[in-house]
Amino acid sequence: MELLRAQSYDKQDRKQVGTNVDRLCKSLLDGPIDADKVDYLQRDARHCGVSYGAGIDDHRLYRCLTVASQGVGDQLLLVMGVTDKGRISAESILFARYAMFTQVYWHHTVRALKALMHYAAAHFLASIKTPAEATSLRKDFVRCALLGKPVDDPAWVGAAAQGKAVTDIQAGDLRVLGWLWKNTTGNGKVAIQHILDREPMKRVLTLPRGSLTDGQQQLLDRIYSPEHFMDRLSLQLEVQTALRMRLADKHCPDQLLETQHLDAKEWRRRLEDTAMLRCTVDYPAQRAGAAFGLKIVGPWGEEPPAPGGQEDAPTEIPEEKMRLLPISIFGEGMKALERSIACLRVFWDPSESVILRRVLGDEEIEDVVRRTIDDFKPEERAWNLL
């Protein structure tokens, strides 16, 4: 655990956290080109039937890995780097990551299904009343997920038997989904039912992270961290309520209702139903991997900064007077990637999404959502039951 806590530099205390060896070892586990990233980008691409991971030249990358020095304040820190010959191989990881996030990990259908899972999980966590109950549920989850304990809930067995997507879900994942079904609330079960029936919510609004104000980004980054699940539920409910009330003030043509197999009476009943799950809001929080920088080392320029008293810092100048090129591929590249493809998405019940977009229009939906976010007041405390 101490190894995983090692950081490159603590700006507040103006000193490195952990030894150079700790930080370098950590970068192999959790860094810009760590073993996990190189593995999952290629493996996921292969299993998803896309070719983005095939462009990673990992063999050349491994041959070009090196250790570089970076002056920060009065200290000389060690960072992972690649020689100039490995620059293209390193950049291929950035492109593969960009392609996989846009086309697979953050594809709108994947995010719609994840939003439903997060919704069901948040309702489950919100239903826990005491630490003792949390401990008991944690043990029961381990028995189910790791030891294969079946879910003994007749309602779940019936729901799973009728689900269209059940045959595409692996047995272990289906068992965990059943455990969540058994322990979550009624609305959480509705969300899981959407997954089982292969009927994810439909997009009604997409806002790139860069189009949000600084205040909106800060708020969303906060409440979409794991411990603020109560705030996420509250925000989704407020967005749903605001859109539903705006929709109730508008006239919906009978012809439009007919295309969605609804009549005026059924539509009014739906608008009056405040308990119905009809909205999820998805916002991928900033990922820690985007904060790393990978340096390119070349045989040009001046000598690196002199050591600043750190006992385990290098005291010799690398061969050929190597220094850091003023290029940070992963530091700025991954941050730009996050800004360009990370989006706030609002999903709506598939039986009403067409009506919502036709009656309100994209601009009015965006206005309602932005106003709701601006007016939202999160709770001061975070929840950490697990």
Q: Care to describe what's here?
A:
- The chain is α+β, with helices and mostly antiparallel strands and 386 residues long.
- It folds into three domains: 2-105 and 291-340, no CATH class; 108-200, no CATH class; 201-286 and 342-386, no CATH class.
- 52% of the residues lie in helices and 13% in strands.
- It is built from 17 helices and nine strands.
- It has helices at residues 2-5, 20-29, 35-48, 58-64, 87-105, 108-126, 131-145, 154-162, 171-183, 186-196, 214-223, 229-248, 254-259, 264-272, 329-341, 353-360, 362-375; strands at residues 7-10, 15-17, 65-72, 75-83, 202-208, 279-282, 295-298, 323-328, 343-348.
- A four-stranded mixed sheet has the order 3-4-7-8. The protein has a three-stranded antiparallel sheet with strand order 5-9-6, with helices on both faces. It has a two-stranded antiparallel sheet with strand order 1-2.
- Helix 6 packs antiparallel against helix 10 (186-196) and helix 16 (353-360) crosses helix 17.
- It is globular and about 70 Å long.
- It starts with a helix and ends in an 11-residue tail after the last helix.
- The relative contact order is 0.15.
- The model is unreliable at 300-329 (pLDDT under 50).
